[in-house]
From TrEMBL:
Pathway connected to this protein: Metabolic intermediate biosynthesis; acetyl-CoA biosynthesis; acetyl-CoA from acetate: step 1/2
Pfam families: Acetate_kinase
Reaction it catalyzes: acetate + ATP = acetyl phosphate + ADP
Cofactor(s) demanded: Mg(2+); Mn(2+)
PANTHER family associated with the record: ACETATE KINASE (PTHR21060)
Protein's recorded name: Acetate kinase
Annotated Mg(2+) binding sites: N7, E374
């Protein structure tokens, strides 16, 4: 049973191809990426062993989502031969209160998810675009939505509640949390690394273009930094993270910014880009000698370390700190800056270590790097959804 997992962003489209092996286990066959979608798309793919299968710019008319997916389907048809894709799983950023488990993406469901776009203006359209395009390209192919908010669906007051009039909470204004597929994968991986790890009071820092943190115990979310939208929480590449709500009022009433201009400022012009005035890419900032780059990195480390301390308060302590995401996995300088601010919590790094376990032997908090794989989390959810719908024997022969 072959499952295609799609992870659509605002400027990229990641994919993974998996074969169902046993219940709860899928084997990766290949993974790849369409990058640079805002300019000139480039397609790359690797097999499960990391061998390059494709890497080339694409000349596609209009660079539409449909054209990209047709290119991908043509590539996969050639590579898979007689094996057929039985389902496509999509990362859907916001599921709201209604969608807290994987769901068959019917037209009615897609329309309902589209209504959540004002809460996730950057991500929801990107999530739903491939769903609609595939419905045109392969009408009979089952598509299943897997939600970034679902992992946090167990959050309850006071963690989930905002200090606003109760009628707005009843309308659905509450903390939802995001990056749930990444956190689900990390929770699963911790159990594979050691059966003792999941029970620890754990904070996972998903640091990439978008950044959030999650407090968990036994693979269950206890608290998280993103809230009603993916704009909340810590500083990000181009997003501000949490700001004084009075700033938004000031920008509108005194500076004369429109609602759309404020949205653009907070989502696209802030964060690392806004503070540095140089780049939203942490790699560029780390390589720069400009003091503004150093200031942006320092604010980022402060923002993340403060969030870790707050989540430790929710947990009543911290025993395990996990870094993941592009920055979390690869930017040792940033990890070090964050951990130096947590010395008072007993966090001590071993400078000779750069992967897996980073903490010193006398550190009170175990510090790890664990690579995330949202596409595999999607494939697992799709496989389990198909098994529960058809039964193991039918799913295996589908």
């Amino acid at each position: 049973m072959i499952v295609l997992a799609l992870n659509a962003g605002s400027s990229s489209l990641k994919f993974g191809v998996f074969k169902a092996a046993t219940k709860r286990k899928v084997e990766p066959l290949m993974r790849g990426l369409f990058d640079g979608l805002a300019v000139t798309p480039r397609f790359s793919a690797q097999d499960a062993a990391g061998r390059l299968l494709a890497d080339a710019p694409l000349r596609l008319p209009g660079q539409s989502t449909g054209a990209l997916l047709q290119e991908l389907l043509n590539f996969l048809d050639t590579r898979l031969g007689s094996e057929q894709i039985v389902a496509v799983g999509h990362r859907i950023v916001h599921g709201g209160s209604r969608f807290i488990s994987p769901v068959h993406l019917t037209s009615e469901v897609v329309d309902a998810l589209d209504k959540l776009t004002p809460i996730a203006p950057l991500h929801q359209p990107a999530s739903l675009g491939p769903v609609r395009a595939l419905s045109e390209l392969r009408p009979g192919l089952m598509q299943i939505g897997c939600f970034d908010t679902a992992f946090h669906s167990t959050l309850a007051p006071p963690v989930s509640r905002y200090a606003i009039p109760r009628e707005y909470e009843e309308m659905g204004i509450k903390r939802y949390g995001f990056h749930g597929l990444s956190y689900e994968f990390i929770a699963h991986q911790l159990g594979r690394i050691s059966p003792e790890l999941p029970a620890k009071k754990t904070v996972v820092a998903h640091l990439g273009s978008g950044c959030s943190l999650c407090a968990m115990v036994d693979g269950k979310c206890q608290d998280t930094t993103m809230g009603f939208t993916a704009l909340d929480g810590v500083m990000m590449a181009t997003r501000s993270g949490a700001v004084d709500p009075g700033i938004i009022l000031y920008l509108q009433k005194t500076c004369g910014l429109s609602i759309d201009e404020v949205e653009t400022l907070l989502y696209r012009r802030s964060g690392l880009l806004g503070v540095s005035g140089i780049s939203a890419d942490m790699r560029v900032l780390l390589a720069s000698s400009d003091p503004r780059a150093a200031a942006a990195i320092d604010l980022f480390a402060f923002s993340v370390s403060r969030a870790i301390a707050a989540l430790a308060n929710t947990l009543g302590g911290i025993e395990l700190l996990v870094f993941t995401g592009g920055i979390g996995e690869h930017a040792a300088q940033v990890r070090n800056a964050i951990c130096r601010r947590l010395d008072w919590l007993g966090v001590k790094l071993d400078p000779s270590k750069s992967h897996d376990v980073l903490s010193d032997s006398d550190s009170k908090v175990e510090v790890r790097v664990v690579a995330t794989n949202e596409e595999m989390a999607i494939a697992r959810q799709v496989h389990l959804t198909l098994e529960s719908a058809t039964g193991p024997s039918e799913a295996a022969s589908a």
